[in-house]
Amino acid sequence: MAGLAERMTSGVMGQIMKYLVVGGSAFVIDFGLLALLRSGLGLPAWFSASVAFAVSTLYSFLLQRRVTFSADLHVGHSAVRYGILLAANMLLTAGIVEAFDQFFDLYLIGKVVSTTLTTLWNFPLMKYWVYPRQAEPAEAAADEAVTAEPVTE
After folding, report:
1. pTM score
2. Contact 37/47 with Cβ under 8 angstroms?
3. Which helix (H) or strand (E) holds 39?
């Protein structure tokens, strides 16, 4: 059992698990804050949705960067790339939701489809483009061992 737990938290499988947990918790923050601001405080829906989305997006960006991918690219570069990915996701989501609404009158199903697609394509894009690592820790250690100066006595 310990071997399974270890495999699920290390390597790519571990990253996928962390990615899903961070993304899922960002959704809970987004949804919960939207409900609190709109239903709890009576703020306008557009304002509540905007604030909730902004907070959950910042949360997701920071945790995916630090926890899931341990990025070593400068935070500003990651932020620009994340913004580009976010814009592409928003366009894709809007298109899919609108198409499902126009053709099937099922905009919520369109939202589920778009969320599924963006979740699938976001992982590799985040891993290799938004939050790239210069070298994996094991690779870096191996490179250091190979390039280390020989000890002379």
Report:
1. 0.75
2. yes
3. none
